């Protein structure tokens, strides 16, 4: 099993480019099911979740060809399959995003329930009730979602709470529904804006993506197009937190600064110098960090996917801070591993943590429990004294492209090793 070995402490300094956003690319890949025409995608990140989705699409009859900077997807002659079996989707919750496109395009979908994950249970009930509002018949049987329809029809549907995947599934399904669909209390993440931009380029008529209310005028068919996936704001944010945490100087290029405003606002609060340019963010820090508390919330609040990394940074701030997790109920599994390195963090009620700093960290052998916890432990290893071994980095490979190479570019002493 592969691991990362980090020799600390290190100071991050230099320039890197953000990879494409995994969380934008996954629904965009699912959208290839909505047309028989070629769909050419650029800036897809080379991470495990993308490879998993491509394998699922192949099972569903969507072939692909690769060039130097793009992958073109095309439904082939066997593009009649409508099932997403458990063996293909068990490692990735985003597989449920094929549900809406399959239902809209092929009239039937049988998709394995994604189940829970290490950071908490994320049910798909709102996906299903939204599709039922559009006229689908949905049954749950033997661990699978079985949905079918003759023709989806536009409707007004309000999400009981904001759901990124649910918003994406209904956006894709409603694009081919007959009539107008109005979705309310939608998620507002940049990745949803990117999906809507792709769908509109394919001929959809979507207004309001990125706001709480989205209107979709259904069309008879969608055509192919070319699209470049937006930058990964979570990956970029991880390196920017690393810059502040190591008293470094890092510039990340190829991104949209507005997408990271919830983070850069907090980095300024803790004493870092933040400079935004045309498609870039630079973070410099030479002084001891100041404590600043956060509450995770749906966009445009502080993103839950940066909570673990921010918690690690607060161990290096001079004072007490708190971290309140409101999105997932089980997202402090990194805390015991940070404690092995010397962190002073106390979790209360499972969703609230008190962090005391500055706490000197020492290298240790630690175990990743999920994707963002992995990144948190890597950052801790950068400021720790001595050798840190991060185990189970297959979690990390789900969402970070060439992380050890990028960190070495910035001056870190890190390598991938195997048992």
- Figure out the total of helices: 13
Low-confidence stretches: none
Indicate the percent of residues in helices: 25-40%
What's the domain count?
2
- The radius of gyration over CA amounts to 21 Å
Strand content: 25-35%
N-end to C-end Cα span: 6 Å
Shape: elongated
Strand sequence of the main sheet, in spatial order?
22-23-1-24
Report the mean per-residue pLDDT as an integer: 93
In short:
The protein has 419 residues and is of the alpha/beta class. The protein is built from 13 helices and 24 strands.
SSE topology:
Layout: E1 2-8, E2 13-17, H1 22-30, E3 39-42, H2 48-59, E4 62-66, E5 70-75, E6 83-84, H3 86-89, H4 99-106, E7 108-112, H5 125-133, E8 137-141, E9 144-148, E10 156-158, H6 164-175, E11 180-184, H7 190-201, E12 205-207, E13 213-217, E14 225-228, H8 233-245, E15 249-253, H9 261-269, E16 273-277, E17 280-284, E18 294-295, H10 307-314, E19 320-324, H11 334-340, E20 344-348, E21 352-356, E22 365-367, H12 371-383, E23 386-391, H13 403-409, E24 413-418
Parallel strand pairs: 2-15, 3-14, 6-7, 10-11, 18-19, 22-23
Antiparallel strand pairs: 1-23, 1-24, 3-5, 4-5, 7-9, 8-9, 11-13, 12-13, 15-17, 16-17, 19-21, 20-21
Helix pairs in contact: 1-2, 1-7, 4-6, 5-6, 6-7, 8-10, 8-12, 10-12
């Amino acid at each position: 099993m592969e691991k990362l070995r980090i020799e600390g402490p290190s100071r991050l300094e230099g320039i890197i480019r953000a990879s494409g956003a995994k969380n934008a690319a996954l629904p965009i890949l699912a959208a290839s099911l909505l047309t028989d025409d070629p769909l050419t995608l650029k800036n897809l990140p080379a991470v495990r979740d993308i490879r998993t989705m491509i394998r699922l699409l192949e099972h569903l009859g969507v072939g692909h060809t690769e060039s130097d900077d793009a992958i073109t997807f095309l439904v082939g002659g066997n593009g009649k399959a409508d099932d997403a079996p458990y063996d293909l989707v068990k490692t990735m919750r985003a597989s449920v995003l094929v549900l809406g496109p399959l239902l809209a395009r092929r009239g039937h979908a049988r998709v394995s329930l994604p189940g829970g994950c290490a950071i908490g249970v994320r049910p798909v009930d709102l996906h299903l009730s939204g599709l039922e509002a559009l006229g689908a018949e949905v049954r749950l049987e033997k661990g699978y979602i079985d949905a079918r329809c003759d023709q989806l029809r536009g409707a007004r549907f309000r999400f009981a709470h904001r759901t990124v995947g649910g918003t994406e599934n209904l956006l894709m399904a409603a694009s081919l529904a007959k009539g107008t669909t109005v979705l309310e209390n939608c998620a507002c993440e940049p990745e949803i804006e990117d999906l809507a931009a792709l769908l509109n380029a394919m001929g959809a008529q979507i207004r309001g993506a990125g706001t709480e209310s989205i209107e979709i005028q259904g069309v008879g068919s969608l055509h192919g197009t070319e699209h470049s996936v937006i930058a990964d704001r979570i990956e970029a944010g991880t390196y920017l937190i690393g810059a502040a945490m190591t008293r470094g100087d890092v510039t990340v290029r190829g991104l949209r600064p507005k997408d990271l405003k919830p983070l850069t606002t907090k980095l300024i609060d803790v004493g870092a110098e933040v400079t935004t340019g045309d498609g870039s963010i630079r973070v410099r820090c030479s002084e001891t960090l100041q404590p600043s508390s956060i509450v995770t919330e749906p966009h445009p609040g502080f993103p839950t996917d940066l909570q673990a990394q921010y918690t690690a940074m607060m161990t290096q701030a001079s004072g007490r801070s708190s971290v309140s997790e409101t999105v997932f109920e089980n997202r402090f599994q990194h805390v015991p591993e940070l404690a092995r390195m010397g962190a002073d963090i106390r979790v209360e009620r499972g969703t609230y943590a008190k962090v005391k700093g500055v706490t000197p960290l020492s290298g240790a052998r630690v175990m990743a429990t999920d994707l963002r916890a992995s990144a948190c432990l890597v950052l801790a290893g950068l400021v720790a004294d001595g050798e840190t071994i991060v185990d189970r980095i297959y979690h990390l490979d789900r969402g970070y492209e060439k992380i050890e190479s990028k960190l070495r570019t910035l001056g870190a002493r890190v390598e991938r090793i195997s048992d």
